[in-house]
Amino acid sequence: MATGRELRTLAGHSEAVDAVAFSPDGRRLASGSGDKMVKQWEVATGRELRTLAGHSGSVTSVAFSPDGMTLASASGDKTVKPWEVVSGRELRTLAGHSKAVEAVAFSSDGGPSPRGAMTTR
User: By CB neighbour count within 10 A (0-12 exposed, 13-18 middle, 19+ buried), where does 52 fall?
Assistant: First the structure.
């Protein structure tokens, strides 16, 4: 950040990247793309750790939980999917939106909030 110098390019998505988020400890980066995939990257090396497939529309937003154990993705397919970070396992599909989900976030303490632990827009 101090120099503004590019450290590396993370290449692997087949379409435009629409969302990125750093894990709370700064060791992982998640990216979401029009290719309907979420990718996890190791920040220090730029190595792709895993690809999370399950959305049927563009991934519009990604967010890590405050403890870094869960990654949520929002999509044009009108769903939100929480994933287990270490294994990449899809925990569930949250459906019910009538339009594309454009953003997802966790409450700052990761616990319940008036709108739930994950809030969407």
Answer: buried
**Rounded Cα gap, residues 25 and 9, in angstroms:** 20
At CA 27, angle to CA 32 and CA 40, rounded to 5? Answer: 25
Q: pLDDT digits over 26-51, tens only?
A: 999 999 999 999 999 999 999 999 99
Q: Residue with structure tokens 């220090």?
A: 44
Q: How many residues does the chain have?
A: 121
Token pair of 60, please?
């519009």
- Which residues are CB-contacts of 95 (< 8 A; sequence separation ≥ 6)? 78, 79
What tens digit of pLDDT does each residue of 45-79 get?
A: 999 999 999 999 999 999 999 999 999 999 999 99
